[in-house]
Amino acid sequence: MTATPDLGTPRLASPDLLRSTFRRHAAGVAVITARGSSGPVGFTATSLTSVSAEPPLVSFGIGTGASSWPAIAEAEHVGVHILGEHQSDLAATFARSGADRFGAPTAWREGPEGVPVLDDVLAWLVCRIVGRVPAGDHRIVLAEVVLGDPSGAGRPLLYHQGRFNGLRD
């Protein structure tokens, strides 16, 4: 590989290169939930994407080594929650390995299809899983929107440079 002076010093592909690059990419923060065989499960996701309007489809990635993966692998439905800037602690709880994600102070209720629905989020959806696509050490989950509520108040929570942040004007 020949370095071009205007391009700095390129690095060969590696997990570190990918992580370093995506730390510079601001992403919205969502929490994905599901009903597991031994209780509710959930995790923080910055990989949520709108895939299709007709039919309404979303996607998100999850590592196959994640504690939530066994439940997501078997679930028929998931909850998708868009977090507000006031919910950085909630995002951190659902991102932390070994945390009691559904214990106090997390406020939630059982929603449609038995999916755990978090309180006070900007928007939530209940989705039916329609596909799990292998992608390296992750799976890309495709899910069709069944119903939801986009009426929460506030501004979105973002993830950038390894931290949760609010949107700045």
TrEMBL record:
The protein's Enzyme Commission number: 1.14.13.166
Matches recorded under Pfam families: Flavin_Reduct (PF01613)
Domain annotation Flavin reductase like: ranges: 22-166
Gene3D superfamilies: Electron Transport, Fmn-binding Protein, Chain A
Superkingdom of origin organism: Bacteria
A Gene Ontology molecular function term of the record: 4-nitrocatechol 4-monooxygenase activity
Keyword terms: Oxidoreductase
Keyword flag Transmembrane helix: no
Record's protein name: 4-nitrophenol 4-monooxygenase/4-nitrocatechol 2-monooxygenase, reductase component
Species this chain originates from: Streptomyces cyanogenus
